Amino acid sequence: MVGKPSRAARSRARRSIGLLGIGALLPLVLSGCSLEEAFHLGWPRTQPTDQSEMMMDLWIGAVIAALAVGAIVWGLTFWCVVRYKKKDDSLPVQTKYNLPAEISFTGIPFVMIAVLFFYTVVVQDEVNRMEENPDTTITVTAFKWNWEFGYDREDAAGEQITTTGNSNYIPIVVVPNDSRVEFFQTSPDVIHSFWVPDLLFKRDVIPGEGQENAWQADFHTEGTFVGRCAELCGAYHSMMNFEMRVVSPDEFEAYLDNRAEGMSSPEALEAIGHEPYAVTTVPFDTRPDSGQPSGDEGN
C-alpha cells in the first residue's frame, strides 16, 4: 500500500510548479511586451493590406495548431510519468502491434500537414496574384544606398514625378488607401530588398536588364510605416531606410497634383495636412563633428 506523500515531497512539488510558472512568464516579462503584443506573437499589430491580414491569419492558425500539439504531447508525457511510475520490480504489461494507435500516430500528423499546406498555398497564390489593371503603379528604384519612388504621373515639364532620398532626407513613398497598388522594382547596381515590416512582406530588387519584378497589394488602412532594405548591399546598407505613407485616395490625388505644380515632396505632403518629413526613422549622421541632419531636403 502506497502511503501519502511526505510534507517534504509536497513542498518540492509546489516549488517545482512555481518554478515552472515563473519560467513560462519569463519570456513575456523579459521581452517587455504588453499582453496585447504577446497575443500577436511578435507580429505587427496593424496589417495595412488584405495580403498581410491573410498572412497574419495563417501564422496565428499555425501557432495555435503547434500549441495544441505541444499541449497534447506534454500532457500525455506527464500523464505517463505519473500513471506508470515504478512501484515495484515487476514488469509492466508489454503491448505491441497496436494497429489503431499506429494508424492514429500516422494519420493525424498527415492531416495536419495537409491542412497547413493547403492554406499556405492559398495565401501564397493570393500574395503573388497580379491583376492587369491596378489602380496605380509605383516604380521602386533601389540604389547604393537609397531609394527613388516614381509615380505614373508627369509634372509640367513632362517628366515623371519622383521622390529620391539622400543622406539628409528619408524618402517617403505615398500610397493611396482603398486601392490596388503595383510596385515595379528595379536596381542599377546590386541586389537590394524592399521591406515594409508591417506589410509582412519583402521582395528582392535584382539588378540587370530583364530582372525587373513587380508585385501588388490591396491597401485598406491609412497610416505611416517604416521601410528598410533587407538585403546586405554594401557599406551603408543599414542607412537605407524609407517611409510608406498610406493616405486617402483624394489626398493621394491632391499630393500628385501639388507635385505636378512643382512642389517638393515635403511641401506637397504639408499641403495635404501630413507631416512633411519621415516620422518613423531619421537620417543617420555619419559626420562625427556635426549634429543630426535636419532633413530639410527632398524632391
From TrEMBL:
<dbReference type="GO" id="GO:0016020">
    <property type="term" value="C:membrane"/>
</dbReference>
<feature type="domain" description="Cytochrome oxidase subunit II copper A binding">
    <location>
        <begin position="133"/>
        <end position="258"/>
    </location>
</feature>
<keyword id="KW-0813">Transport</keyword>
<keyword id="KW-0186">Copper</keyword>
<dbReference type="InterPro" id="IPR002429">
    <property type="entry name" value="CcO_II-like_C"/>
</dbReference>
<keyword id="KW-0812">Transmembrane</keyword>
<keyword id="KW-0249">Electron transport</keyword>
<dbReference type="InterPro" id="IPR008972">
    <property type="entry name" value="Cupredoxin"/>
</dbReference>
<keyword id="KW-0479">Metal-binding</keyword>
<dbReference type="Pfam" id="PF00116">
    <property type="entry name" value="COX2"/>
</dbReference>
<dbReference type="InterPro" id="IPR036257">
    <property type="entry name" value="Cyt_c_oxidase_su2_TM_sf"/>
</dbReference>
<dbReference type="InterPro" id="IPR045187">
    <property type="entry name" value="CcO_II"/>
</dbReference>
<keyword id="KW-0679">Respiratory chain</keyword>
<comment type="similarity">
    <text>Belongs to the cytochrome c oxidase subunit 2 family.</text>
</comment>
<keyword id="KW-1278">Translocase</keyword>
<comment type="function">
    <text>Subunits I and II form the functional core of the enzyme complex. Electrons originating in cytochrome c are transferred via heme a and Cu(A) to the binuclear center formed by heme a3 and Cu(B).</text>
</comment>
<feature type="transmembrane region" description="Helical">
    <location>
        <begin position="59"/>
        <end position="82"/>
    </location>
</feature>
<protein>
    <recommendedName>
        <fullName>cytochrome-c oxidase</fullName>
        <ecNumber>7.1.1.9</ecNumber>
    </recommendedName>
</protein>
<keyword id="KW-0472">Membrane</keyword>
<dbReference type="GO" id="GO:0004129">
    <property type="term" value="F:cytochrome-c oxidase activity"/>
</dbReference>
<keyword id="KW-1133">Transmembrane helix</keyword>
<dbReference type="InterPro" id="IPR001505">
    <property type="entry name" value="Copper_CuA"/>
</dbReference>
<dbReference type="InterPro" id="IPR014222">
    <property type="entry name" value="Cyt_c_oxidase_su2"/>
</dbReference>
<dbReference type="GO" id="GO:0005507">
    <property type="term" value="F:copper ion binding"/>
</dbReference>
<dbReference type="GO" id="GO:0016491">
    <property type="term" value="F:oxidoreductase activity"/>
</dbReference>
<dbReference type="GO" id="GO:0042773">
    <property type="term" value="P:ATP synthesis coupled electron transport"/>
</dbReference>
<feature type="transmembrane region" description="Helical">
    <location>
        <begin position="103"/>
        <end position="122"/>
    </location>
</feature>
